[in-house]
Amino acid sequence: LGNQAKAAMNAGDLVSDDLIMGIMAERLKEDDCKAGYLLDGFPRTIPQAEALKVMLAEMGETLDCAVEIDVARDVILDRLTTRRTCSGCGEIYNVKSNPPAVEGKCDKCGEPVVQRDDETEEAISNRLNVYNDQTAPLVGFYKNEGLLLS
Ligand SMILES: [Zn+2]
């Protein structure tokens, strides 16, 4: 299922909810989830949240809580547009708070440090709009479920 998801992402397609739920079902049955787990960035939509609720019920489980991390749009934009990633080893830098010792060069491996295509102001702005449209409604969903901590 992971390979199917990777193929979809490499083709620039969205990964379908069915595929995501299949991956989640497999992952949550692994031994390291027996004592509990934290889901970060999932679910992203109301249909995914509803499917998760059904899936957990079938496993005899429920969510303990949902947490909203509320960060102002301009703060998110500033943090992500100043982030840089090493094209060699993947080390993360920030031009303001954690720049490499030599501008544009990784401290660890010497390869170029670059801005990722999905971390330009336009790309992040698009991601935030998608978040507002599709993910922000989860706050109300989990509030209604009595699960929201904020
Ligand atoms: Zn590096």
From TrEMBL:
The keyword Transferase applies. SUPFAM superfamilies: P-loop containing nucleoside triphosphate hydrolases. InterPro entries: Adenylat/UMP-CMP_kin, Adenylat_kinase_CS, Adenylate_kinase_lid-dom, P-loop_NTPase. Residues 83-118 form the Adenylate kinase active site lid domain. Keywords: Kinase, Nucleotide-binding, Transferase. PROSITE patterns: ADENYLATE_KINASE. It comes from the Eukaryota. Pfam families: ADK, ADK_lid. HAMAP family: Adenylate_kinase_Adk (MF_00235). Belongs to the adenylate kinase family. This is Adenylate kinase-like. The gene is LOC106820570.
